Fold this protein.
Amino acid sequence: MNRDEFLYWSTYGSVSTKLIKRWNLNAGGSARVLDLGTGLGRNARKMARYGMDVYALDIDTDVLKKANEITNKEALNVNFVSGDMRQMPFDNDFFDAVYAENVLSLTSFAGLKQTLGEIYRTLKKNGEAFLVIADKSSPTIQNAQMIDENTVLISQQYGTNTGVATFVDDQTLKTCLGKLEIIDKYGAIHGYFPETYRHMILTKKLDKTARK
């Protein structure tokens, strides 16, 4: 990582203030939130500045060490955790919200489904997850070697340590979300403008018992 990349990934992140305020309000105070694939913790630190109880997961221990150093200098409280998003080290029904912007496509399609299952498991009932997943129309994969219908071999420049990435269309996305229900895909609630090559969706773990 060169200096410019470091400065970009270490400055305050792109998590929308609209989402942060919504999640704190829904939790009745300080929401317990997971920043999934935190990297240098830019989104985690922004959420911590708004009083959230932030957990930040990443598989890269060296990056987490740097993220922790930056966070300590700013006197912010973030719980940095080393772990694999496909098997998260958290209890069931642990989080009020999950933020996953730049990580979900950096695995195989099977890995994506596992991770979405883990997000569902660790969310509280009525908890929300903001998810960003690459769309299959992306020009990135037009000449890429396909491993399966949704997984491609991809160069390291795109940030994946596994050398694979996943791209999905609308129908496949709905299928792999499982029991997570999309409540906003156009930005009215989550505050982001839709993008052509990325699905940017707010989902919810519905409390089925509340409907009875």
In short: The longest strand covers residues 123-134.
